[in-house]
């Protein structure tokens, strides 16, 4: 199977193999990555984490697990500009630095292996974690507890004071949603470093995961524009136009489509 096929095979398992699927994303960008070897090495990390956890019921071990990760050197990468390695799990495991989502995926896999209840939360701008039934969330970058006021403050810091906290921002993320968010992150990171082919690999995966937005099609259209592929660009602009609810964006998309050469058919 290709890395992309292996990625989707992981999602089709019951339960989905989230962590392994993320490793197959890494393979798409670096053929030297060996998911089996990474998973074997991960067992050693799990043992090190487990040996430092307190004697508590598993329902109370999520925050100690995150603090144990900090003790072992895991932290959010603050280097600017961010590079793709902050989102590729094989690189994050080696460097112990990464984006909140990447750190959360490592924590979720550790928790799964140690039977500690923990789920992901697709919070805007900063991925979070939660123990099912708890009245707070957890920051994957250190384990800080976040109550509603903390979440509101985090949201305002990311998007400004007009952004309102709502229940949709606090729901549990599915494995597919997490992997789609990871793919969007990588798409942007590769684009910011002028790696258009790398960004295109991620943009295609975003769309293949389903429920894509107008902005997802527009992002791939812009990559095709940079790669001088007008037919593919037109396809994505037309899909973005169908999905867009913004009248101004629809006008701009229509104008952009009008500037493209007519579809060419090769026989």
Keyphrases for this structure?
267 residues; mainly alpha; Serine Threonine Protein Phosphatase 5, Tetratricopeptide repeat; 2 domains; two-stranded parallel sheet; 12 helices; globular
The helical percent reads 55-70%
Write the element-wise H/E pattern from the N-terminal end onward: HHHHEHEHEEEEHHHHHH
User: Major sheet, described briefly?
Assistant: 2 strands, parallel
Strand content: 5-15%
Architecture overview:
The strands form three sheets. Strands 1-2 form a two-stranded parallel ribbon. Strands 3-4 form a two-stranded antiparallel sheet. The chain has a two-stranded antiparallel sheet with strand order 5-6. Helix 9 (196-208) packs antiparallel against helix 10 and helix 10 packs antiparallel against helix 11 (230-243). Helices cover 57% and strands 5% of the residues. It is mainly alpha-helical. It has helices spanning 3-11, 18-29, 35-51, 62-71, 89-95, 100-113, 148-159, 175-192, 196-208, 214-226, 230-243, 247-258, and strands spanning 75-76, 97-98, 119-121, 128-130, 137-138, 145-146. The chain folds into two domains: 3-170, no CATH class; 175-258, Tetratricopeptide repeat domain (Serine Threonine Protein Phosphatase 5, Tetratricopeptide repeat), CATH 1.25.40. The longest helix has 18 residues, at 175-192. InterPro entries: SirB1_N. This is Tetratricopeptide repeat protein. Belongs to the UPF0162 family. Residues 37-183 form the Protein SirB1 N-terminal domain.
């Amino acid at each position: 199977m290709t890395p992309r096929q292996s990625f989707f095979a992981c999602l089709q398992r019951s339960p989905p193999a989230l962590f392994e699927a993320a490793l197959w994303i890494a393979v798409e960008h670096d053929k030297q990555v060996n998911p089996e070897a990474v998973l074997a090495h991960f067992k050693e990390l799990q043992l090190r984490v487990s040996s430092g956890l307190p004697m508590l019921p598993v329902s109370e071990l999520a925050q100690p697990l995150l603090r144990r990760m900090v003790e072992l050197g895991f932290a959010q990468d603050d280097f600017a500009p961010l590079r793709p390695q902050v989102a590729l799990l094989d690189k994050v495991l080696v460097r112990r630095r990464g984006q909140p989502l990447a750190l959360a995926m490592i924590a979720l896999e550790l928790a799964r292996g140690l039977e500690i209840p923990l789920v992901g939360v697709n919070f805007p701008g900063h991925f979070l974690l939660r123990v099912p039934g708890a009245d707070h969330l957890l920051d994957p970058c250190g384990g800080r507890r976040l109550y509603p006021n903390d979440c509101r403050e985090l949201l305002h810091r990311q998007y400004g004071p007009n952004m309102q906290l709502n229940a949709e921002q606090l729901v549990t993320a599915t494995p597919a949603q997490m992997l789609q968010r990871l793919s969007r992150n990588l798409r942007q990171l590769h684009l910011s470093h002028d790696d258009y082919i790398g960004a295109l690999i991620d943009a295609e995966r975003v769309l293949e995961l389903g429920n894509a937005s107008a902005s997802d099609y527009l992002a791939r259209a812009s990559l095709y524009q940079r790669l001088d592929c007008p037919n593919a660009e037109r396809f994505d602009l037309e899909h973005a136009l169908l999905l867009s609810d913004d009248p101004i964006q629809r006008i701009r998309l229509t104008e952009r489509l009008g500037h493209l050469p007519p579809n060419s058919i090769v026989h």
